[in-house]
Write a structure and sequence with these properties.
- The protein is α+β, with helices and mostly antiparallel strands.
- It contains 16 helices and 23 strands.
- Bound molecules: iron/sulfur cluster.
Length: 432
């Protein structure tokens, strides 16, 4: 998961990237056009730390990065003398596109440049390469003439919104700068020159979409819309359905802030158990799931405080949006009990994550997933909780209400076949 943006000026891209910061905190970068040349500024860390100096005028693209392949130190946009690109996703067959590349962003850049070197124009070269790419990509490409290509993969895994000529991964980022938005459909490629859309087409023959259900569960800001569905509203529904599927005898419902809040509202409404704030998040710690290993564990230890008066002597139902490695939840149950919670019932507003994602999310090996090979009872024992209950896959589909969702990390059934060779390649480049 990453965030991308494009705008008529680098200054506006900077602002959009800050609005997309939750999608990646490992690195950030901007490329803009200055006197017919592409210029780059970027580095590790948050947008405000990574991007210090840039010329505010001139068309630009930008990126916030949460690494899925290529290691932590790599920064997008990637660029050469002719073009720059920033993308959100994971191209599984990148070696097929460009065998000399060591990661997918570089492969796309090299392959598109190679096609341009053969005489194709920017639009045709981009379209030809993207049509061969297998996996997820929402992408912006800028050339030194200031022309912009915008595209979303044929499965539509990742979001991408536009208020021409402003582009952002999430609708909320465009609203932050006072824009309207419409979502760019899957399998669409557009070329923008100045303030005109000059070319537009399908990338390849239509495929059955596979919108990432994790975008609804965790990634996107509650204000955002994905496929016309508001993220907060879908999460409230996840909580409501969870309360019906996995009821709990409790005195108080508390969310794991912040991403569990919407689902906790839904759980409380459906169960009639009062909602309260029992966990307080240190806002300056960042999102532990999108941090490198090592950093992640340290953050999990210091991330939450407990409001003792809310939980003391109570049967607490703690609601989180999802569990990947389980490090944070174990710590939360311990914290709640240390502050006098009589019982802790863990409720998760998504199904157990039991399979790797090869489409852009960082949980590539089964062994890292706490729910892999474990039942809800096993997890209750592991976390010292009185009970654990997850939402079903059907419940998740119903809550989101969008046809053609990808649920591969829950079901193990992928939207397309993935060969062992491709998996080995992903694993070998993963966080190299
Ligand atoms: S496997 Fe899971 S995280 Fe990956 S694209 Fe599908 S739903 Fe999203």
């Amino acid at each position: 998961m990453c965030g991308i943006a494009a705008a008529p000026t680098a200054e506006e891209v900077f602002v959009l990237l800050e609005s997309l910061q939750h999608r990646g905190q490992e690195s950030a970068g901007i490329v803009w056009v200055e006197n017919g040349e592409l210029k780059f500024e970027g580095g590790l860390g948050l947008v405000k730390d990574a991007i210090k100096k840039f010329v505010p005028k001139g068309p630009a693209i930008g990126h916030v990065r949460y690494s899925t392949s290529g290691g932590y130190s790599r920064i997008q946009p990637v660029y050469n003398k002719r073009i720059a690109l920033a993308f959100n996703g994971n191209v599984i067959n990148f070696k097929f596109l460009e065998h000399n590349s060591s990661w997918d962003a570089e492969a796309l850049l090299m392959a598109i440049t190679n096609e341009m070197n053969k005489g194709k124009d920017l639009f045709e070269a981009s379209k030809e390469v993207l049509a061969k790419a297998k996996g997820s990509y929402s992408i912006v490409i800028l050339d030194k003439k200031g022309r912009l290509i915008v595209a979303r993969d044929p499965w539509g895994f990742r979001p991408l919104a536009l208020d021409f000529p402003y582009i952002a991964s999430e609708t909320a980022a465009l609203e932050d700068i006072g824009k309207n938005w419409k979502e760019i459909p899957e399998n669409k490629i557009i070329m923008i020159e100045g303030d005109t859309i000059t070319k537009e087409s399908e990338i390849t023959e239509p495929k059955t979409p596979a919108y990432c259900s994790f975008e609804y569960v965790y990634f996107e800001r509650p204000e955002s819309y994905f496929n016309g569905v508001n993220i907060h509203v879908s999460r409230v529904r996840m909580g409501r359905i969870l309360a019906k599927e996995k009821p709990a005898e409790g005195d108080v419902v508390i969310p794991v802030p912040d991403s569990g809040r919407s689902a906790a509202i839904g759980f409380s409404r459906a169960s009639k158990i009062p909602l309260d704030e029992g966990l307080v998040k240190n806002r300056y710690m960042g999102r532990s799931f999108i941090m490198p290993p090592g950093v992640r564990e340290k953050i999990a230890m210091r991330k939450y405080g407990v409001v003792k008066d809310v939980v003391h002597g109570k049967r607490v139902v703690v609601v989180d949006d999802s569990i990947i490695r389980g490090t944070t939840m174990k710590r939360i149950v311990k914290l709640l009990k240390s502050k006098g919670a009589k019982e802790v019932h863990v409720r998760i507003a998504s199904p157990p994550v039991r399979a790797p994602c090869y489409m852009g999310i960082d949980f590539p090996s089964k062994e890292e997933l706490v729910a892999f090979g474990r039942s809800e009872e096993d997890l209750a024992r592991l976390w010292d909780a009185e009970s654990v209950g997850y939402l079903s896959i059907e419940g998740l589909r119903k809550a989101i209400g969008v046809r053609h969702l990808c649920v591969a990390c829950f079901s193990g059934i992928y939207p397309f076949p993935i060969t062992k060779e491709e998996i080995d390649q992903i694993l070998s480049t993963h966080r190299d």
